[in-house]
Design a protein that fits this description.
alpha+beta, Jelly Rolls, 5-stranded mixed β-sheet, about 30% helix, globular, Oxoglu/Fe-dep_dioxygenase_dom, gibberellin 2beta-dioxygenase, IPNS-like_sf, metal-binding, dioxygenase
């Protein structure tokens, strides 16, 4: 395989070429072996790697909502906070929350344990049984470089988090993760309840279908990447759940589609990010927006994040909060199977457009 190193139409200087080769050697020895898979995709697709000028990315600051307003003794403040959550979910599909009730101590402990886990050898992370055998890296289904994610993750069902047998030698991780998952679940239910009530329904509507047996935690690491920003840390996608709560570090790399262009989310280590998933968009009849987003890895610093996914059971029927409905009714299991089929056949997720009700005039 040949790598073509160019900057626009001009050859790279010797110093830049040396830097490139240094990073290449480092990544050949990387954990996990992402470069090996990426190189195979380049070779099979017949593409050459080109160093290009970085796109100038506009940086945005997500709407920030102080959740202490929901606990206020004054009805006007509670209503104003709920309205802000609903407005951000409709206009942005993303917002960040402060004073959310999860202590900095829990968040800090979870981050330290996460780093310790990912710093362990590749063979340990990939070993059978660790965290319910949930370790994933790269994109096994990718058929070309643009479908490849330069990242590794543990995608863990909440039902497995309390099981001692899942942790192996990582005994200190279990206690922290149990506490962290419970706090995230409580926050997710609070936010979902507000969004449901804002559309005129009872707060506990989703509590029966979204519990410990259906939700997930995903621990993410995005290793340094010498090809950034040409490679995705996480390919463009929408989330398939009701909502996601994200704890990210100060490195940055999260980008979302705002209007018709990508914007970079300014990192705020003191806030948690919340985004609407496909199921809430369908249920709300497009009042709330599930927005496409992606992650770009950093060329010098690795990035960590943790995501909580509020999901229903696979047999839960997703209807609409009002009629006429934009989408046909479907179960979460049906939705997941359609996504998997689309990824296999087309190489990418199609999502909600598959379930639109087409009205013929």
């Amino acid at each position: 395989m040949q790598f073509q190193a160019t900057l626009g139409h001009l050859p790279l200087s010797l110093s830049l070429c040396a830097t490139f080769l240094y990073h290449l050697r480092i990544m050949l020895e990387s954990d996990p072996p992402l470069l090996h898979n990426y190189a195979d995709l380049l070779r099979h697709s017949g593409e050459n790697y080109a160093v290009q000028q970085s796109e100038i990315m506009e940086e945005c600051e997500l709407p920030q909502i102080d959740l202490s307003g929901l606990r206020s003794d004054h009805e006007e403040e509670r209503e104003a906070c709920a309205a802000a959550i609903s407005r951000a979910s409709s206009k942005w599909g993303f917002f960040q929350v402060v004073n959310h009730g999860i202590s900095p101590e829990i968040l800090g402990k979870m981050r330290r344990e996460q780093v310790k886990l990912f710093k362990s050898p590749f063979e340990t992370k990939a070993s059978c049984g660790l965290l319910n055998n949930s370790y994933k890296w790269g994109t096994p289904s990718a058929t070309c470089p643009k479908q490849f994610s330069w990242s590794e993750a543990f995608h863990i069902p909440l039902t497995k988090i309390s099981e001692e047998a899942c942790y192996g030698d990582f005994t200190s991780l279990r206690e922290v993760m149990v506490e962290y998952a419970a706090a995230m679940q409580e926050l997710a239910r609070l936010l979902a309840g507000v969004l449901v009530m804002n559309l005129g329904h009872k707060r506990g509507l989703f509590e029966e279908v979204c519990d410990e047996s259906t939700c997930f935690l995903r621990l993410n690491r995005y290793p340094t990447c010498p090809f950034s920003p040409q490679v995705f840390g996480l390919v463009p996608h929408t989330d398939s759940d009701f909502l996601t709560i994200l704890q990210q570090d100060e490195v940055g790399g999260l980008q979302l589609m705002k209007g018709s262009k990508w914007v970079a989310v300014k990192p705020n280590d003191n806030a948690l990010i919340v985004n609407i998933g496909d199921l809430f968009q369908a249920w709300s009849n497009d009042v709330y927006k599930s927005v496409e987003h992606r992650v770009i890895p950093n060329g010098k610093v690795e990035r960590y994040s943790i995501a909580y996914f509020l999901c229903p059971s696979y047999d839960s029927l997703i209807g609409s909060c009002k009629e006429p409905s934009i989408y046909r009714k479907f179960t979460f299991g049906e939705y997941r199977r359609q996504i998997q089929q689309d990824v296999k056949m087309a190489g990418h997720k199609v999502g909600l457009p598959r379930f639109l009700l087409h009205v013929h005039n």
